């Protein structure tokens, strides 16, 4: 019953019950490990030796902390939108989310033990990796396993990219708000990326000089800069910037005064025939815009 609850609810009501997928396979596979003589946590508990479970839980938490530490500083990252827990975060992860790493380590251990059942008990632990070396997996089984693994990657990783990746680091050629002829000219004046554009134009006199060198109005250069700042907000990207353009949000400042609910409704009205970001993602954009300008919602008189 517990297994059914974990697996079904995490699929059908994934927005709220997705963490259960991190424990569901424990209840599914551990009984098989116990029944067929594999390395079993149930058996360890039965023998009065829960040490392995404690070590796995601690290792999972340590790995989770390291994962989120590295994730926080990288340019390409996971940005979490967990219902009810968006405000208080450690790195990018809501604090409660760290509680998912310990059971996930247990689940990974249980799953590997199940795989070891098909390898004559051989595993990665010191006492097991040399078990039954005289027994070899049949060629047919090895080939079939390789095909299944490759099929899994093909079938799973494409949907993962489609469902979880919705913004990419913008390159200069992706900056549709800069005319193509100027995209070709900018590298000639030392601007090869949008980061270069933002760092070089911090001072007004340099902005004025650059506008003269490119033969463009100062207002046009300011427009490029504002768009470049906006597109690089965490989780935004070029595709989402185009959506904001359609509802009149053209700068970081304009985004700071938006109400997430109202902005979401406007996006729905304008883009009826296509999918739009979730409200949680929009809240992240607005929060990041306010953080960049050093303001808070209360200071702007915006109800959240």
Topology of helices and strands:
Layout: H1 2-12, H2 14-17, H3 21-35, H4 41-46, H5 51-73, E1 89-90, E2 93-94, H6 101-117, H7 139-164, H8 180-185, H9 194-200, H10 204-214, H11 218-231, H12 237-246, H13 252-256, H14 260-270, H15 279-293, H16 297-300
Antiparallel strand pairs: 1-2
Helix pairs in contact: 1-3, 3-6, 5-6, 10-11, 14-15
Can you give a write-up of this model?
With 304 residues, the protein is mainly alpha-helical. It has two domains: 133 residues, no CATH class; 129 residues, no CATH class. It has 16 helices and two strands. It has a two-stranded antiparallel ribbon. The longest helix has 26 residues. The two termini are 40 Å apart. The model has no long low-confidence stretch (mean pLDDT 88).
Quick overview:
This protein is mostly helical.
Strand content: under 5%
Overall mean pLDDT score?
A: 88
The secondary-structure element order is HHHHHEEHHHHHHHHHHH
Distance between the termini: 40 Å
Question: Unreliable segments (pLDDT under 50, ≥5 consecutive)?
Answer: none
Give the helix tally.
Answer: 16
Protein structure class: mainly alpha
- What is the total number of structural domains? 2
Q: Which of globular, elongated, flat, extended, rod-shaped describes the shape?
A: elongated
Strand order of the largest sheet: 1-2
Largest sheet: 2 strands, antiparallel
Oligomer designation: single chain
Number of strand elements = 2
Helix fraction? 55-70%
Question: What's the gyration radius in Å?
Answer: 26 Å
């Amino acid at each position: 019953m517990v297994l059914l609850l974990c697996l079904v609810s995490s699929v059908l009501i994934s927005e709220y019950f997705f963490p259960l997928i991190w424990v569901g396979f424990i209840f599914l596979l551990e009984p098989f490990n116990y029944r067929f003589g594999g390395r079993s946590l149930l058996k360890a508990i039965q023998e009065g030796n829960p040490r392995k479970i404690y070590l796995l839980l601690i290792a999972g938490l340590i790995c989770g902390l390291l994962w989120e530490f590295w994730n926080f500083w990288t340019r390409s990252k996971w940005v979490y939108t967990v219902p009810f827990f968006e405000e208080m975060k450690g790195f990018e992860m809501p604090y409660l989310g760290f509680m998912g790493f310990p059971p996930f380590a247990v689940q990974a251990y249980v799953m590997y033990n199940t795989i070891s059942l098909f390898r004559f008990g051989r595993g990665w632990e010191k006492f097991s990796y040399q078990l039954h070396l005289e027994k070899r997996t049949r060629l047919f089984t090895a080939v079939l396993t390789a095909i299944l693994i490759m099929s899994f990657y093909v079938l799973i990783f494409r949907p993962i990219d489609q469902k979880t990746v919705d913004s990419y680091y913008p390159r200069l050629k992706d900056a549709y708000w800069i005319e193509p002829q100027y995209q070709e000219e900018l590298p000639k004046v030392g601007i090869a990326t949008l980061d270069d554009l933002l760092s070089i134009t911090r001072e007004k006199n340099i902005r004025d000089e650059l506008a003269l060198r490119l033969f463009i109005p100062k207002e046009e250069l300011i427009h490029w800069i504002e768009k470049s700042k906006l597109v690089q907000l965490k989780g935004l990207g070029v595709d989402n910037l185009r959506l904001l353009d359609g509802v009149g949000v053209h700068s970081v400042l304009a985004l700071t005064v938006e109400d997430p609910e109202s902005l979401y409704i406007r996006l729905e009205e304008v883009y009826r025939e296509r999918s739009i970001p979730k409200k949680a993602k929009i809240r992240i954009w607005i929060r990041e815009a306010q953080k960049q300008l050093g303001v808070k919602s209360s200071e702007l008189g915006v109800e959240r």
